[in-house]
């Protein structure tokens, strides 16, 4: 997923790869880890686009922020057990 973000960063904001990654990040079903990696990949793409003086759209960030508000507080999650437990 991160490699797709790097590839997307070489093109203009809103390209087809970025749209695909965005769809994965916004999916309501599927694996949570996929959504997390997709969100990170969008950040990688935006970073690379800014480095090339291309201005990413604010829409992606706004929609991701909206989705994050709907996620439960991660502090309330049970901690993972270590191998020694």
Please explain how this structure is put together.
Helix 1 runs antiparallel to helix 2 and helix 2 (16-26) runs antiparallel to helix 3 (32-51). The protein is globular, with a radius of gyration of 15 Å. The chain has 85 residues and is an all-alpha fold. The protein is built from 4 helices and no strands.
Quick overview of this protein structure:
59% of the residues lie in helices and 0% in strands.
Give a quick account of the main beta sheet: strands, pairing sense, barrel closure. Answer: none
Number of strands: 0
H-E order = HHHH
Q: What's the mean pLDDT score?
A: 83
Low-confidence runs of at least 5 consecutive residues: none
Morphology: globular
Alpha plus pi helix count: 4
End-to-end C-alpha gap: 33 Å
Helix percentage: 55-70%
β-sheet strand percentage: under 5%
**Any idea how many domains?**
1
Structural class: mainly alpha
Output the radius of gyration. Answer: 15 Å
């Amino acid at each position: 997923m991160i490699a797709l973000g790097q590839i997307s960063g070489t093109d203009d904001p809103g390209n087809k790869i970025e749209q695909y990654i965005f769809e994965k990040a916004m999916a309501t079903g599927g694996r949570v880890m996929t959504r997390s990696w997709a969100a990170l990949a969008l950040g990688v793409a935006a970073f690379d686009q800014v480095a090339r003086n291309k201005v990413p759209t604010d829409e992606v960030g706004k929609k991701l922020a909206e989705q994050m508000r709907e996620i439960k507080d991660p502090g309330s999650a049970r901690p993972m057990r270590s191998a020694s437990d």
